[in-house]
Amino acid sequence: MVLDDATAAAKRAGELLAHAARDGGHIALSGGRTPAAAYEAAARLQPDWSGAELWWGDDRCVPPDDERSNYALVAQTLLPVLEVAPAAIHRIRGELDPGEAAAEYDTALRGVRLRLNFLGIGPDGHTASLFPNAPGLHERERLAIAAEPGLDPRVTRVTMTPPMLADTDCALFLVTGEDKARAVRRAFAEQPSDATPSSLIRARDGQTIVVLDRAAASELPASI
After folding, report:
1. How confident is the model over 39-95, as pLDDT tens digits?
2. Which fold has domain 2-213?
């Protein structure tokens, strides 16, 4: 769906997050600049998250109070606004060795199916911390792995793998801004490719919802 601007897109994504929180279950969150407004909207709409357990699709290998941490973003924008906290918070322990943190997260994720997986897309087409042509795109056994960093900043990461990202009732992409328009076209209007990791991630046995502002949707064919 295409909304007029980034504010409207974030509000719609927030509504979908709030609905998932009301239903309860496992919800995976993301980082970056775009989701913050959606988290704030979701917390206002649904202040009781006691039925939900929170996970992260990926995070940087930094302490939880580091400004680059995806956990820190949620701790600043969503958690303080809630009246009732989530039943559990399963953060990636980025302060550990990346391999150790990934192994720990892989174990924790066993047996989990996500109610909602909230995703974004980078200008290069990456999602979570699956970057173009990364070996992790072909991982089929592990649910979380250490990932090589993106270009900026160069920090090692831990990410869910494609099988885990797809194991969800709803994969929700929120993408805004003209700088993402080419990546959006490649992800949703062209053939799936390792060069555009987000083109490979869709809900398995569930629905995939894409929320865009007009700027991010500007290169999509009119037929979509």
Report:
1. 999 999 999 999 999 999 999 999 999 999 999 999 999 999 999 999 999 999 999
2. Rossmann fold (3.40.50)
Mention every residue, 6+ apart, whose C-beta is less than 8 A from residue 141.
Answer: none
Asked which of 32-36, 166-170, 193-197, 211-215 is least confident by mean pLDDT, the reply is 32-36
Cα→Cα distances 133→45, 189, 198, Å = 38, 19, 11
- pLDDT reading at 154 higher than 80: no
